[in-house]
Write a structure and sequence with these properties.
Radius of gyration: 21 Å
Helix content: 10-25%
Shape: globular
Number of strands: 20
Mean pLDDT: 89
Structural class: alpha+beta
Order of helices and strands: EHEEEEHEEEEEEHEEHEEEEHHEEHE
Amino acid sequence: MIIHHYTTIDTLALILKNKTFRFNRLDKVDDLEENITAKGVKIGQYSFVSCWTDDESESIPLWKLYTGSGIGVRISLEHEMFKVYNNEGPITVNGIPFDPRPVYTRTITPLQDFINAENVVFAVAENELPFVFKKVQYVLDVNEHIRDLVVKTQHSSDILGITVNTSKFGLYKQERWSFEKESRFVLIIVPGRKYDDVESFMQGYNGNNMFFDAWNNGIIPSISYYDMHLKDSVFDGMEITLSPAMPESSRIIVESLVNQYAPQATIKESSLEGKVRLK
């Protein structure tokens, strides 16, 4: 599936040079309502997203919102774009013995960010991409759809346990945003802790104690973004659509970036050129 991302020329330069895509924490995005709470757990603090659309038609609102005064680009890529890590087990990750078989022998997130890490990126196996890539559902009341994602076990006033269904994190948006026709990748990241030895690590992870502390006490990750690495060949099929308002000076910059970092990529003119004034 080909998907599309509207962005600035500056961001295009970073994507091409670093061969990464940035996932931003959901409580930091433009829709302030995405920092929603379910039974005291602020879901947006633990959801990191990269926002796209599968709508082939160019969007005037998206050109205006996300391309920097309407002079940016639209990046088009195959959605299976991320680097795959081969994890032959048993292995040692950050000083901790770990056997990735059978689930995590091939992942799109590095295991060193999952095991004994300061911020724990929930591991994503290669075949789990469909669970990470989501078509946003636009609803009238987001809270109504997320309230059951968190279940707390209580005795009197003491919270004994929390069960969190992360599969629907980042899935819903208020219907006023439906014009975006958004699809997004969603990663779950929670604050972790690095341990010096295996015994301490196992005690910290026993019963998901670390995650319980984060959910229950509102502890947020120390990072506001996370960069996902792309496949080595991902730019070969990249298509870059120039903004319909792009000046010649900006066009030269895009062409120079593509020549240096992605010579097999295709640059195309906007279908809206000469039909709309974005400024």
